[in-house]
Protein backbone atom coordinates (compact mmCIF):
# COMPACT_ATOMS: atom_id res chain seq x y z
CA UNK A 1 0.00 0.00 0.00
CA UNK A 2 1.24 3.48 -0.85
CA UNK A 3 1.03 5.31 2.50
CA UNK A 4 1.29 8.61 0.66
CA UNK A 5 -2.39 7.96 -0.25
CA UNK A 6 -3.02 8.71 3.44
CA UNK A 7 -0.47 11.47 3.75
CA UNK A 8 -1.56 14.05 1.23
CA UNK A 9 -0.60 16.87 3.66
CA UNK A 10 0.55 17.34 7.26
CA UNK A 11 -3.05 17.54 8.43
CA UNK A 12 -3.46 14.03 7.06
CA UNK A 13 -1.96 12.66 10.22
CA UNK A 14 -3.96 10.16 12.27
CA UNK A 15 -5.44 11.06 15.67
CA UNK A 16 -5.67 8.31 18.31
CA UNK A 17 -7.66 9.04 21.50
CA UNK A 18 -6.57 6.87 24.43
CA UNK A 19 -8.74 6.99 27.57
CA UNK A 20 -6.91 5.42 30.53
CA UNK A 21 -9.69 3.47 32.28
CA UNK A 22 -7.57 1.45 34.66
CA UNK A 23 -4.16 -0.23 34.71
CA UNK A 24 -1.89 -0.14 31.64
CA UNK A 25 -3.68 -1.99 28.86
CA UNK A 26 -5.38 0.98 27.26
CA UNK A 27 -2.10 2.85 26.93
CA UNK A 28 -0.33 -0.41 26.11
CA UNK A 29 -2.52 -1.07 23.08
CA UNK A 30 -2.65 2.55 21.84
CA UNK A 31 1.11 3.12 22.23
CA UNK A 32 1.87 -0.12 20.41
CA UNK A 33 -0.52 0.77 17.56
CA UNK A 34 0.81 4.34 17.29
CA UNK A 35 4.41 3.15 17.04
CA UNK A 36 3.53 0.57 14.39
CA UNK A 37 1.65 3.12 12.24
CA UNK A 38 4.66 5.44 12.41
CA UNK A 39 7.44 2.89 11.87
CA UNK A 40 5.78 0.36 9.55
CA UNK A 41 3.33 2.56 7.59
CA UNK A 42 5.03 5.97 7.61
CA UNK A 43 1.90 7.59 9.04
CA UNK A 44 2.18 10.69 11.25
CA UNK A 45 0.34 9.89 14.49
CA UNK A 46 -0.98 12.24 17.17
CA UNK A 47 -1.72 10.22 20.31
CA UNK A 48 -4.04 11.92 22.81
CA UNK A 49 -3.79 10.44 26.32
CA UNK A 50 -5.99 11.58 29.20
CA UNK A 51 -3.58 10.36 31.92
CA UNK A 52 0.06 10.96 31.02
CA UNK A 53 1.29 9.94 34.49
CA UNK A 54 -0.03 6.40 34.02
CA UNK A 55 1.30 6.33 30.48
CA UNK A 56 4.76 7.16 31.76
CA UNK A 57 4.99 3.67 33.23
CA UNK A 58 5.10 2.29 29.68
CA UNK A 59 6.81 5.32 28.10
CA UNK A 60 9.58 6.20 30.60
CA UNK A 61 10.85 9.22 28.61
CA UNK A 62 7.39 10.82 28.67
CA UNK A 63 7.15 14.13 30.59
CA UNK A 64 3.62 14.30 32.05
CA UNK A 65 3.92 18.07 32.52
CA UNK A 66 4.11 18.77 28.78
CA UNK A 67 1.02 19.33 26.62
CA UNK A 68 2.83 18.02 23.59
CA UNK A 69 6.02 16.03 22.90
CA UNK A 70 7.35 13.60 20.34
CA UNK A 71 8.47 10.20 21.61
CA UNK A 72 9.78 7.56 19.20
CA UNK A 73 8.21 9.43 16.31
CA UNK A 74 4.77 9.66 17.94
CA UNK A 75 3.33 13.11 18.68
CA UNK A 76 1.92 12.62 22.19
CA UNK A 77 -0.59 15.17 23.42
CA UNK A 78 -2.25 15.70 26.77
CA UNK A 79 -5.98 15.06 26.38
CA UNK A 80 -7.29 17.66 28.75
CA UNK A 81 -10.90 18.55 29.65
CA UNK A 82 -10.53 21.96 27.97
CA UNK A 83 -9.59 20.48 24.63
CA UNK A 84 -7.20 22.59 22.52
CA UNK A 85 -8.05 23.78 19.03
CA UNK A 86 -6.26 21.15 16.93
CA UNK A 87 -6.42 20.24 13.23
CA UNK A 88 -8.34 17.01 12.59
CA UNK A 89 -6.44 14.18 10.94
CA UNK A 90 -7.48 12.01 8.00
CA UNK A 91 -8.28 9.18 10.44
CA UNK A 92 -9.59 9.51 14.00
CA UNK A 93 -9.37 6.45 16.25
CA UNK A 94 -11.40 6.46 19.44
CA UNK A 95 -9.88 3.59 21.40
CA UNK A 96 -12.06 1.51 23.69
CA UNK A 97 -15.25 3.46 22.87
CA UNK A 98 -13.64 6.75 23.95
CA UNK A 99 -16.04 9.73 23.88
CA UNK A 100 -14.40 12.39 21.72
CA UNK A 101 -14.40 16.05 22.81
CA UNK A 102 -17.47 17.84 21.38
CA UNK A 103 -15.30 20.58 19.85
CA UNK A 104 -13.24 17.95 18.04
CA UNK A 105 -16.36 16.19 16.74
CA UNK A 106 -17.61 19.52 15.39
CA UNK A 107 -14.24 20.06 13.71
CA UNK A 108 -14.40 16.55 12.22
CA UNK A 109 -17.75 17.41 10.66
CA UNK A 110 -16.24 20.57 9.15
CA UNK A 111 -13.21 18.80 7.73
CA UNK A 112 -13.05 18.13 3.98
CA UNK A 113 -12.73 15.35 3.18
CA UNK A 114 -14.42 13.98 6.35
CA UNK A 115 -12.06 11.85 8.44
CA UNK A 116 -12.45 8.12 8.77
CA UNK A 117 -13.75 7.67 12.32
CA UNK A 118 -12.84 4.36 13.97
CA UNK A 119 -14.02 2.93 17.29
CA UNK A 120 -11.24 0.49 18.21
CA UNK A 121 -12.91 -2.02 20.51
CA UNK A 122 -11.66 -4.41 23.19
CA UNK A 123 -10.50 -7.88 22.23
CA UNK A 124 -12.93 -10.76 22.67
CA UNK A 125 -13.01 -14.32 21.33
CA UNK A 126 -16.79 -14.43 21.42
CA UNK A 127 -18.64 -15.37 18.23
CA UNK A 128 -20.66 -12.14 18.03
CA UNK A 129 -17.53 -10.08 17.37
CA UNK A 130 -17.21 -11.02 13.68
CA UNK A 131 -20.75 -9.80 13.04
CA UNK A 132 -20.01 -6.37 14.56
CA UNK A 133 -16.61 -5.81 13.00
CA UNK A 134 -16.59 -2.89 10.46
CA UNK A 135 -20.21 -1.98 11.22
CA UNK A 136 -21.03 1.70 10.61
CA UNK A 137 -22.75 3.87 13.20
CA UNK A 138 -23.95 7.32 12.07
CA UNK A 139 -23.57 10.17 14.54
CA UNK A 140 -27.03 11.22 15.81
CA UNK A 141 -26.54 14.86 14.93
CA UNK A 142 -23.40 15.45 12.86
CA UNK A 143 -22.69 14.25 9.28
CA UNK A 144 -20.22 11.69 10.59
CA UNK A 145 -20.13 7.90 10.56
CA UNK A 146 -18.14 5.87 13.04
CA UNK A 147 -16.99 2.37 12.17
CA UNK A 148 -16.45 -0.36 14.77
CA UNK A 149 -13.11 -2.12 14.42
CA UNK A 150 -12.68 -5.27 16.49
CA UNK A 151 -9.40 -6.99 17.27
CA UNK A 152 -9.90 -10.72 17.02
CA UNK A 153 -8.65 -14.24 16.44
CA UNK A 154 -9.81 -14.88 12.88
CA UNK A 155 -9.92 -13.27 9.46
CA UNK A 156 -13.50 -12.01 9.98
CA UNK A 157 -12.05 -9.55 12.54
CA UNK A 158 -9.28 -6.95 12.62
CA UNK A 159 -6.69 -9.41 13.87
CA UNK A 160 -4.10 -8.66 16.57
CA UNK A 161 -1.22 -6.20 16.91
CA UNK A 162 2.09 -7.81 15.93
CA UNK A 163 5.15 -5.83 14.92
CA UNK A 164 6.94 -6.68 11.68
CA UNK A 165 10.23 -7.18 13.56
CA UNK A 166 8.73 -9.49 16.22
CA UNK A 167 10.09 -12.76 14.80
CA UNK A 168 13.56 -11.30 14.24
CA UNK A 169 13.68 -9.99 17.81
CA UNK A 170 12.63 -13.40 19.10
CA UNK A 171 15.29 -15.19 17.08
CA UNK A 172 17.93 -12.84 18.51
CA UNK A 173 16.81 -13.47 22.09
CA UNK A 174 19.03 -15.45 24.51
CA UNK A 175 17.49 -16.89 27.67
CA UNK A 176 20.97 -17.24 29.22
CA UNK A 177 21.79 -13.60 28.58
CA UNK A 178 18.40 -12.64 30.02
CA UNK A 179 19.10 -14.59 33.21
CA UNK A 180 22.57 -13.08 33.52
CA UNK A 181 21.24 -9.55 32.98
CA UNK A 182 18.86 -10.08 35.89
CA UNK A 183 21.57 -11.76 37.95
CA UNK A 184 19.25 -14.69 38.43
CA UNK A 185 20.66 -17.64 40.35
CA UNK A 186 22.08 -20.38 38.08
CA UNK A 187 19.31 -22.49 36.48
CA UNK A 188 18.72 -25.69 38.50
CA UNK A 189 17.97 -29.07 36.85
CA UNK A 190 14.26 -29.35 36.04
CA UNK A 191 13.66 -25.78 37.17
CA UNK A 192 10.42 -24.20 35.96
CA UNK A 193 10.62 -20.48 35.25
CA UNK A 194 7.30 -18.67 35.64
CA UNK A 195 6.36 -15.03 35.06
CA UNK A 196 3.54 -13.59 37.18
CA UNK A 197 1.75 -10.47 35.84
CA UNK A 198 -1.64 -10.62 37.47
CA UNK A 199 -4.32 -8.73 39.40
CA UNK A 200 -4.81 -9.29 43.13
CA UNK A 201 -5.92 -12.91 43.55
CA UNK A 202 -7.10 -14.74 46.72
CA UNK A 203 -5.75 -17.95 45.16
CA UNK A 204 -2.18 -16.61 45.08
CA UNK A 205 -1.09 -17.95 48.53
CA UNK A 206 -2.39 -21.42 47.58
CA UNK A 207 -0.41 -21.37 44.34
CA UNK A 208 2.79 -20.10 46.00
CA UNK A 209 2.49 -22.74 48.70
CA UNK A 210 2.07 -25.39 46.01
CA UNK A 211 5.24 -24.19 44.23
CA UNK A 212 7.28 -23.98 47.43
CA UNK A 213 6.44 -27.63 48.08
CA UNK A 214 7.07 -28.62 44.45
CA UNK A 215 9.45 -31.58 43.73
CA UNK A 216 11.00 -29.37 41.02
CA UNK A 217 12.41 -25.91 41.76
CA UNK A 218 10.24 -22.99 40.63
CA UNK A 219 11.70 -19.57 39.83
CA UNK A 220 8.89 -17.00 39.82
CA UNK A 221 9.64 -13.67 38.14
CA UNK A 222 7.26 -10.94 39.29
CA UNK A 223 7.19 -7.51 37.66
CA UNK A 224 6.49 -4.70 40.09
CA UNK A 225 2.75 -4.20 40.33
CA UNK A 226 -0.54 -4.85 42.07
CA UNK A 227 0.36 -8.42 43.11
CA UNK A 228 3.33 -7.41 45.31
CA UNK A 229 1.46 -6.66 48.57
CA UNK A 230 -0.26 -10.09 48.47
CA UNK A 231 3.03 -11.76 47.62
CA UNK A 232 4.89 -9.99 50.42
CA UNK A 233 2.17 -10.89 52.92
CA UNK A 234 2.37 -14.57 51.94
CA UNK A 235 6.15 -14.54 52.32
CA UNK A 236 5.82 -12.85 55.72
CA UNK A 237 7.48 -9.63 54.52
CA UNK A 238 6.42 -6.02 55.04
CA UNK A 239 6.94 -5.26 51.38
CA UNK A 240 8.73 -6.17 48.16
CA UNK A 241 10.43 -4.12 45.47
CA UNK A 242 12.37 -4.59 42.27
CA UNK A 243 15.61 -6.47 42.81
CA UNK A 244 14.39 -8.49 45.77
CA UNK A 245 15.09 -12.25 45.56
CA UNK A 246 13.34 -14.47 48.11
CA UNK A 247 14.02 -18.18 48.58
CA UNK A 248 11.05 -20.08 50.04
CA UNK A 249 11.77 -23.82 50.04
CA UNK A 250 11.54 -24.93 46.37
CA UNK A 251 10.28 -21.52 45.31
CA UNK A 252 12.53 -18.58 44.37
CA UNK A 253 10.72 -15.28 43.92
CA UNK A 254 12.50 -12.50 41.99
CA UNK A 255 10.86 -9.08 41.81
CA UNK A 256 11.59 -7.31 38.51
CA UNK A 257 11.39 -3.66 37.58
CA UNK A 258 8.55 -2.62 35.27
CA UNK A 259 10.22 -2.41 31.87
CA UNK A 260 9.30 -1.13 28.40
CA UNK A 261 7.05 -3.31 26.25
CA UNK A 262 9.93 -4.85 24.31
CA UNK A 263 11.53 -5.84 27.63
CA UNK A 264 8.27 -7.44 28.72
CA UNK A 265 8.32 -9.61 25.57
CA UNK A 266 11.75 -10.87 26.65
CA UNK A 267 10.39 -11.80 30.07
CA UNK A 268 7.69 -13.88 28.38
CA UNK A 269 10.26 -15.56 26.08
CA UNK A 270 12.50 -16.44 29.03
CA UNK A 271 9.81 -18.37 30.91
CA UNK A 272 8.24 -21.83 30.70
CA UNK A 273 4.85 -20.59 31.87
CA UNK A 274 3.44 -17.04 31.81
CA UNK A 275 0.65 -15.67 33.98
CA UNK A 276 -0.78 -12.69 32.11
CA UNK A 277 -3.81 -10.42 32.42
CA UNK A 278 -6.06 -7.88 30.73
CA UNK A 279 -5.59 -7.64 26.98
CA UNK A 280 -2.16 -6.65 25.69
CA UNK A 281 -0.03 -8.99 27.83
CA UNK A 282 -2.56 -11.73 26.99
CA UNK A 283 -1.88 -11.19 23.27
CA UNK A 284 1.90 -11.06 23.83
CA UNK A 285 1.73 -14.39 25.66
CA UNK A 286 0.20 -15.94 22.54
CA UNK A 287 2.90 -14.51 20.29
CA UNK A 288 5.49 -15.92 22.73
CA UNK A 289 4.16 -19.40 21.81
CA UNK A 290 4.61 -20.69 25.37
CA UNK A 291 2.04 -22.00 27.87
CA UNK A 292 0.18 -19.24 29.71
CA UNK A 293 -2.60 -18.52 32.18
CA UNK A 294 -4.97 -15.59 31.55
CA UNK A 295 -6.28 -13.51 34.44
CA UNK A 296 -9.03 -11.68 32.60
CA UNK A 297 -10.20 -8.23 33.72
CA UNK A 298 -13.25 -8.87 35.91
CA UNK A 299 -16.65 -7.60 34.78
CA UNK A 300 -20.07 -7.52 36.37
CA UNK A 301 -22.20 -10.68 36.51
CA UNK A 302 -19.16 -12.77 35.60
CA UNK A 303 -19.39 -11.60 31.98
CA UNK A 304 -15.60 -12.00 31.90
CA UNK A 305 -15.89 -15.76 32.50
CA UNK A 306 -17.99 -16.08 29.35
CA UNK A 307 -15.16 -14.33 27.44
CA UNK A 308 -12.60 -16.60 29.10
CA UNK A 309 -14.51 -19.76 28.16
CA UNK A 310 -15.00 -18.50 24.58
CA UNK A 311 -11.25 -18.02 24.21
CA UNK A 312 -10.39 -21.46 25.64
CA UNK A 313 -12.75 -23.12 23.16
CA UNK A 314 -11.01 -21.35 20.24
CA UNK A 315 -7.47 -21.71 21.58
CA UNK A 316 -7.73 -25.47 22.21
CA UNK A 317 -9.93 -26.37 19.27
CA UNK A 318 -8.67 -29.75 18.02
CA UNK A 319 -6.48 -30.37 21.07
CA UNK A 320 -7.03 -33.50 23.21
CA UNK A 321 -10.19 -33.10 25.38
CA UNK A 322 -8.22 -34.02 28.53
CA UNK A 323 -5.85 -31.10 27.91
CA UNK A 324 -8.74 -28.74 27.32
CA UNK A 325 -10.42 -29.90 30.53
CA UNK A 326 -7.24 -29.49 32.57
CA UNK A 327 -6.57 -25.99 31.26
CA UNK A 328 -10.19 -24.89 31.58
CA UNK A 329 -10.32 -26.12 35.21
CA UNK A 330 -7.11 -24.35 36.17
CA UNK A 331 -7.89 -21.07 34.37
CA UNK A 332 -11.38 -20.95 35.92
CA UNK A 333 -9.95 -21.68 39.36
CA UNK A 334 -7.38 -18.90 38.91
CA UNK A 335 -10.03 -16.45 37.76
CA UNK A 336 -12.47 -17.45 40.49
CA UNK A 337 -9.69 -17.19 43.06
CA UNK A 338 -10.19 -20.67 44.49
CA UNK A 339 -9.41 -24.33 43.77
CA UNK A 340 -6.00 -23.84 42.10
CA UNK A 341 -4.28 -26.49 44.25
CA UNK A 342 -6.75 -29.14 43.08
CA UNK A 343 -6.54 -28.09 39.42
CA UNK A 344 -2.76 -27.54 39.22
CA UNK A 345 -1.44 -31.15 38.91
CA UNK A 346 -3.48 -31.94 35.75
CA UNK A 347 -2.66 -28.54 34.25
CA UNK A 348 1.05 -28.89 35.04
CA UNK A 349 1.05 -32.32 33.39
CA UNK A 350 -0.27 -30.71 30.17
CA UNK A 351 2.42 -28.03 29.93
CA UNK A 352 4.67 -30.00 27.54
CA UNK A 353 1.73 -30.47 25.14
CA UNK A 354 0.67 -26.84 25.47
CA UNK A 355 4.24 -25.88 24.60
CA UNK A 356 3.93 -27.89 21.40
CA UNK A 357 0.58 -26.21 20.68
CA UNK A 358 1.94 -22.64 21.01
CA UNK A 359 3.58 -22.29 17.57
CA UNK A 360 0.54 -23.79 15.80
CA UNK A 361 -1.80 -21.36 17.55
CA UNK A 362 0.46 -18.39 16.77
CA UNK A 363 0.62 -19.43 13.10
CA UNK A 364 -3.17 -19.61 12.99
CA UNK A 365 -3.43 -16.10 14.48
CA UNK A 366 -0.92 -14.72 12.00
CA UNK A 367 -3.23 -15.74 9.17
CA UNK A 368 -5.59 -12.93 10.25
CA UNK A 369 -2.96 -10.38 9.34
CA UNK A 370 -1.66 -7.76 11.76
CA UNK A 371 -4.23 -5.34 13.18
CA UNK A 372 -2.30 -2.16 12.24
CA UNK A 373 -2.02 -3.22 8.59
CA UNK A 374 -5.67 -4.34 8.53
CA UNK A 375 -6.70 -0.97 9.97
CA UNK A 376 -4.65 0.98 7.39
CA UNK A 377 -6.19 -1.09 4.60
CA UNK A 378 -9.72 -0.53 6.00
CA UNK A 379 -9.21 3.23 6.38
CA UNK A 380 -7.74 3.52 2.89
CA UNK A 381 -11.02 2.14 1.52
CA UNK A 382 -13.09 4.29 3.91
CA UNK A 383 -11.21 7.52 3.03
CA UNK A 384 -11.31 7.09 -0.71
O1 LIG B 1 -2.71 -3.45 32.68
P1 LIG B 1 -3.79 -4.35 32.29
O2 LIG B 1 -4.50 -5.05 33.35
O3 LIG B 1 -4.84 -3.53 31.41
C1 LIG B 1 -6.21 -3.79 31.46
C2 LIG B 1 -6.64 -4.31 30.18
O4 LIG B 1 -6.29 -3.51 29.18
C3 LIG B 1 -8.12 -4.46 30.12
O5 LIG B 1 -8.55 -4.82 28.85
C4 LIG B 1 -8.76 -3.19 30.45
O6 LIG B 1 -10.15 -3.39 30.50
C5 LIG B 1 -8.27 -2.78 31.77
O7 LIG B 1 -6.85 -2.62 31.74
C6 LIG B 1 -8.89 -1.51 32.10
O8 LIG B 1 -3.24 -5.50 31.31
P2 LIG B 1 -2.69 -5.47 29.84
O9 LIG B 1 -3.76 -5.23 28.86
O10 LIG B 1 -1.91 -6.71 29.69
O11 LIG B 1 -1.70 -4.24 29.77
C7 LIG B 1 -0.47 -4.23 30.43
C8 LIG B 1 0.56 -3.51 29.57
O12 LIG B 1 1.76 -3.31 30.35
C9 LIG B 1 0.98 -4.29 28.33
O13 LIG B 1 1.12 -3.41 27.24
C10 LIG B 1 2.35 -4.84 28.69
C11 LIG B 1 2.87 -3.73 29.55
N1 LIG B 1 3.98 -4.05 30.44
C12 LIG B 1 5.18 -3.41 30.19
O14 LIG B 1 5.32 -2.63 29.23
N2 LIG B 1 6.23 -3.67 31.04
C13 LIG B 1 6.15 -4.54 32.08
O15 LIG B 1 7.11 -4.74 32.80
C14 LIG B 1 4.88 -5.21 32.30
C15 LIG B 1 4.73 -6.17 33.42
C16 LIG B 1 3.81 -4.92 31.48
Automatic annotation (TrEMBL):
Catalytic function, reaction form: dTDP-beta-L-rhamnose + L-arginyl-[protein] = N(omega)-(alpha-L-rhamnosyl)-L-arginyl-[protein] + dTDP + H(+)
InterPro entries: EarP
Molecular-function GO term, any one: translation elongation factor activity
Keyword list, A-Z: Elongation factor, Glycosyltransferase, Protein biosynthesis, Transferase
Keyword Transferase on entry: yes
Stated family: Belongs to the glycosyltransferase 104 family.
Protein name as it appears in the record: Protein-arginine rhamnosyltransferase
Gene: earP
Amino acid sequence: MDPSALLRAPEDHWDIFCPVVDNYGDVGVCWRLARQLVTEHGIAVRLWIDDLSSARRLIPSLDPSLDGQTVRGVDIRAWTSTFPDAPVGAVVIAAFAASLPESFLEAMAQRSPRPAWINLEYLSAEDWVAGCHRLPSPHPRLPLVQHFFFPGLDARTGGLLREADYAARRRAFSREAFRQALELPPEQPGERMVSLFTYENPALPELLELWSKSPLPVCCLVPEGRVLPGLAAHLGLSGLRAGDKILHEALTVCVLPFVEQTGYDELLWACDLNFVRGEDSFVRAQWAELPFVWHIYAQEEDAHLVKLQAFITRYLDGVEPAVELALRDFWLAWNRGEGVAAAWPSFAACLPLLKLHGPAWSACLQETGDLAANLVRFCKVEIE
